Each structure stands twice: as structure tokens, then as C-alpha cells.
Amino acid sequence: MSQPKVSVRKLSKSYAGRTRAEIIVFRDIDLDIRQEEFACIVGPSGCGKTTFIKIVDGLIAPSSGQVFIDERAISGPGYDRAFVFQADSLYPWRTVIDNIVLGLEIKGSDNAERYAKARELIQLVGLAGFESHYPHELSGGMRQRVNLARALAVDPEIILMDEPFASLDAQTREVMQRELLKLWWSRKKTVLFITHQIDEAVYLADRVIVFSQRPATIKADIRIDIPRPRSLDVKRTPEFLAYVGQIWKLIEADVLESVAHSD
What we know:
By secondary structure, this protein is of the alpha/beta class. The chain has helices at residues 49-57, 96-100, 102-107, 111-124, 140-153, 170-187, 198-204, 238-262; strands spanning 6-16, 22-33, 38-42, 64-69, 72-73, 81-84, 158-162, 190-194, 207-211, 218-223. It has a six-stranded mixed β-sheet with strand order 6-7-8-3-9-10, sandwiched between helices. It has a four-stranded antiparallel β-sheet with strand order 2-1-4-5, with helices on one face. The longest helix has 25 residues, at 238-262.
């Protein structure tokens, strides 16, 4: 077998608490993600999913353990990774096309080249005609399309996504799930995607990695054997619902406990 694209080895993260007692977020996480694989992480609130994905991006350092990209240990962010946050984080004073080229500006790409690439991506994400619009003139779904285009513009090998559709209404969220799969299928990127929605994870993923409550470990790693390409209609099939039920049973007790502790 070929080497994994992303390898996580014995990864742990902890913080000093207010009373100086150590808070262990997760510990001894081992995980491999293959080239062009779409992997989703689910788990109860507060189990460290966002912290984990930020460590993979190099935004924060682990307490122990290491992340490898193509067998190379990472020590910070790089152009081989792009991060898509829950909030669209677009600059309000920049137009759609000027937001998309931002990463290419930082990278120092030629001006004509970066705008040519941005126009191509605008077509790809279905925003033709909105090049000169500002973020406040767009719907939530359209802003996240700009966010995705901006991430794709630097041509990363890995896209890390932290609940990017959480703030969208249910109908828009479903459309964006379908569009994301089209983009992933056409661009063949490696994706690590965090979500609280089990059905979203099953619909999108090749694998669903289930985190336990804090201090988190990997509770299960489930391969989703549903053929691709997937239409939204697949969500109503017995096979799909069986996966959703299986994953819910794995995290139900942890979720109920985390909710009880938050009251």
C-alpha cells in the first residue's frame, strides 16, 4: 500500500486549568488518511475536534505526538493545506474575486495568473456574475462558496474544514453538501471535515472517525460503503439510515453526558 497522505502519531493535547489542574483534551490519537480520501470526524461537543484539526493544519502545537504530511513532520501552516472555518471570514471591503485571490497575493503569484484562476473557480462554485459583489450582498451559502473557492485557489493538497455549513439553514446546507462533493470529486483533494451532524458525515465521507468524550480517543473508524457519486436521495435509503443509527449509538451516551454537564 502507498504511504498515507496524513499520518497522526500519538497526538495529545492538554491545557493548564484555572486551578492548575491539567485539562486533557485528547490523548494518543493515531490516524492515517489516504491521498484523495474524504474523512469526517464526529463526536460530542467539547471533545477536541476543532483543536485536533487546527493541530493538523499547524495553527497550534500538540502537547506530544506528531503530524506527518507525506511522511514529513509539520511544524506550522503550509501551502499544502487550506483551512475552511465555520465563519466565512471574508474581508468585507473586498469583492468576491478579490477575496478569492487573497491567498495567491500572499503567495506572490502573478497578478494576471491569480485573477485568471479566480475567474475559473468562480465558475466552478457557481458564482458567475457575482465577481464584483461584496460579502454583505451575498447569502450565507454564497459566502461559503467564496470561502471554498479561496481555499482551492492556492491549490492545496489537503483541505481542512471545521463545520463550514453549521450556520446555514437546512435546505442551503444540503445543497452545499452536494456541491462540496462535486468540487472534491473534480479536484481530487484530501479532505478532513468536522461536523456535529451524523447524516452530513455519512453523506460526505469515505470514512467517519468517531471521537469519544474528553479526554478524547478514537472510539470507532467506520468505512462508508455507499457508492459514489451520491445524490441527496441516498439519505432516505435503509443503508444510509443504518450507518446514521450505528454512529449515533456509539456517541449517544457521550453526547447526553456532555449536554448534562453544560447545564
